[in-house]
């Protein structure tokens, strides 16, 4: 089996558990750059009168707010990982800047984003793969993104109660260091824990799926992004700017 970016150990862990955490994905310099950009984007967004949910700062379609976010959407290393877990043809479904503030109760009980699974060329392919780039340390009590390992293989009717919260037997919390990238299959049972710490949970989130999917409503790229004549074939593929066949050359 040929892998583009993952090691065989990582790939087998992904196939078994339905999620993968990769430490030091972003360097200290990149973290400083992204955190500075996130703060500036939020300040500008709020200055326009945008209203945030209680105790959460969120900017949907963050790729509309600068090249820095587009560059992360098509990060070369992550593109290699997506090729390993999805294949050579995929698109960006949604994306956002997300900051969960101290003292906030969970904003998402246990759920899966989709129960759909597919076989393409005899290979099990996720209907969607979501990537969290954490730009600050996440303590154990910091509102962790959490998973039930192996649940991607479970039927809906055998999944534990959604209200289990932090009492979910066998759950794993992503109390990770800044710079960690966490990706998970949309069929993996997951939740956000209460943030009882004094820290913000800061992240940039990108969701990818097979090329036949469209962006979720409200996340469609603007005409400005779609019409940029300097877009590469890879960027056009991710933005859904034009139909694109299975073609590994886009990654060159």
UniProtKB/TrEMBL annotation:
Signal peptide limits = none
Q: Which UniProt keywords apply?
A: Dioxygenase, Oxidoreductase
Q: Name one Pfam family in it.
A: PhyH
Report if keyword Oxidoreductase is assigned: yes
Keyword Glycoprotein on entry: no
* Top-level taxon of origin: Bacteria
- Which GO MF terms are attached to this record? dioxygenase activity
What are the coiled-coil residue ranges? Answer: none
Which named protein is this?
Phytanoyl-CoA dioxygenase family protein
């Amino acid at each position: 089996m040929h892998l583009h970016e993952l090691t065989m150990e990582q790939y087998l862990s992904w196939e078994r558990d339905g999620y993968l955490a990769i430490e030091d994905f972003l360097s200290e310099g990149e973290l400083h750059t992204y955190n500075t950009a996130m703060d500036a984007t939020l300040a500008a967004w709020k200055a326009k009168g945008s209203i945030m949910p209680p105790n959460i700062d969120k900017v949907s379609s963050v790729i509309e707010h600068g090249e820095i976010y587009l560059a992360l959407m098509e990060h070369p290393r992550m593109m290699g990982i997506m090729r390993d877990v999805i294949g050579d043809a995929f698109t960006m479904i949604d994306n956002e800047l997300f900051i969960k503030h101290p003292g906030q109760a969970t904003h998402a009980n246990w759920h899966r984003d989709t129960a759909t699974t597919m076989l393409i060329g005899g290979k099990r392919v996720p209907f969607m793969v979501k990537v969290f780039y954490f730009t600050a340390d996440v303590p154990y009590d910091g509102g962790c993104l959490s998973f039930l390992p192996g649940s991607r293989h479970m039927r809906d009717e055998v999944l534990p109660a959604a209200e289990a919260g932090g009492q979910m037997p066998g759950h794993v919390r992503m109390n990770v260091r800044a710079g960690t990238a966490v990706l998970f299959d949309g069929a993996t049972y997951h939740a956000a824990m209460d943030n009882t710490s004094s820290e913000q949970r800061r992240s940039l989130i990108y969701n990818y799926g097979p090329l036949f999917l469209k962006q979720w409503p409200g996340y469609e790229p603007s005409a400005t992004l779609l019409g940029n004549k300097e877009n590469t074939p890879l960027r056009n593929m991710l933005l859904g700017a034009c139909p694109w066949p299975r073609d590994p050359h886009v990654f060159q």
